[in-house]
Amino acid sequence: MSETLTITTPDGDFSAYVARPQADNAPAIVVIQEIFGVNKVMRDICDGLAAQGYVAVCPDLFWRIEPGIDITDQSEAEWKRAFELFNAFDVDTGVSDIGATIAAARALPGVNGKIGAVGYCLGGLLAFLTATRTDVDASVSYYGVGIEKHVGEAEKLAHPLLMHIAEKDQFVPPEAQQVILNALKDHPQIEIHTYADRDHAFAREGGAHYDAADAAKANGRSLTFFQKALA
After folding, report:
1. Which of 26, 33, 11 is nearest to 100 (CA)?
2. Cα–Cα separations (whole angstroms), residue 121 to 35, 126, 165, 229
3. Nearest of 105, 176, 109, 107 to residue 117 by alpha carbon
4. Residue 2: pLDDT above 90?
5. Quick one: fold of 2-229?
6. Is 97 a catalytic residue?
7. C-alpha triplet 22, 56, 217: angle, nearest 5°
8. Domain map of the chain by residue range?
9. pLDDT tens digits along 38-60
10. Residue 53, Cα to own-chain centre: how many angstroms?
């Protein structure tokens, strides 16, 4: 079952896609978009989490640029538009909007108060910053772009964080990965898994670099992590 949630901020309102489980009382997970908006890939992730027993909430984080972005990775024109949106996006404001989403999700009927976050690509960076800057209970970051610039924020981390890193990520070069691993691998709240021979977005079903085996492995780890952290 899905619905639309309206989230209010001092700057205006924005929407979020919500998928609900059969359970009447469940934790919520905020699903943080890639650079393609709240598209079918993100909605399918929400629906999958709902099937696992979570209230899944995917906010429209591009609303300040253009509300309702819903594009794919299947054409050159869409990729061009996606990078335009990425370049226009303000990360700090995005994290603030995620904080507003967390508060709205906690107040939803049927949510038991526990909130997780999971993000992909741009959302992978935002999931990391959500872990360090908000009161979220647990976060998962898939192949986040630009985390190496923010590793110092890990000292503020109060709740568990799971990270999935693609070793051949074209957008996170080896030197950036080394910065991340050196800074974070021994942090008591952080669990990191790397995936050899995998490129960026290996878990995006239908994408050019999708790998079913490693996507299943990463997603299984994420579900186990959330089952423990949001219990």
Report:
1. 11
2. 7, 9, 10, 22
3. 105
4. no
5. Rossmann fold (3.40.50)
6. no
7. 100
8. 2-229
9. 999 999 999 999 999 999 999 99
10. 18
Does residue 70 have an active-site annotation?
no
Task: Report whether 75 contacts 45 (CB < 8 A).
Answer: no
Q: Which residues pair with 115 in a beta bridge?
A: 28
Q: Pick the catalytic residue: 169, 199, 211, 214?
A: 169
Question: Could you read off the pLDDT of 20-35 as tens digits, one per residue?
Answer: 999 989 999 999 999 9
Rama region for 196: left / alpha / beta (φ>0; ψ in -120 to 50; rest): beta
The b-or-e profile of 95-130 (16+ CB within 10 A means b, else e) is bbbbbbbbebbbeeeebeebbbbbbbbbbbbbbbbb
Hey, what are 221's tokens?
Answer: 């780890």
How does DSSP assign 118-134, residue by residue? EEETHHHHHHHHHHHHS
Residue 1 has pLDDT above 90, yes or no: no
Evaluate if pTM is beyond 0.85: yes
pLDDT over 90 (residue 128): yes
The strand pairing partners of 58, in sequence order, are 17
Question: Mean pLDDT across the chain, nearest whole number?
Answer: 97
